[in-house]
Fold this sequence. Notes:
With 145 residues, this protein is mainly alpha-helical. The protein has a domain at 64-144. Helix content is 89%, strand content 0%. The longest helix is centred in the last third of the chain and has 42 residues, at 103-144. It is flat and about 55 Å long.
Amino acid sequence: MIVIVIGAATLWFAILATAITVLAPVVLLFTALRLALTGHSFALSDSRPRAAMAESWAMMRGNVTRLLGLLLGTLPLIMLMLLAGSLALVVVSIPFAIIGTSRGPTLAANAVGTVVLAVVLIPILCYVTTATTLFYLNLTGRNSG
């Protein structure tokens, strides 16, 4: 009898854990998209943090799929640039790994590769930030006029 109760409890726990595992990413993505313009609202309209969150939440009503499309549209560019930056990091590091030099040159090569990766990632961040800022300005212009 105790084994059946423990088995049933384990089954319900597994069902609950699976439901949370499946639903949590959806809820987090939805919440992140609804609050995606909070920083823009805070910086560009001089709102307090809670007011900026409320403004972003209200502004994104009906526009979540548009923002998701915008972000998914930039995804191939982001993936391509990340791949290029990672390859640059590996290419810079490989000669030192093959030669088997001391730790100093290897660290220097990794530092150079990291700088190259950062130089590649900065334009991506600028592009995504510009796209979301234009999205925010489009929404505020359309909502106020």
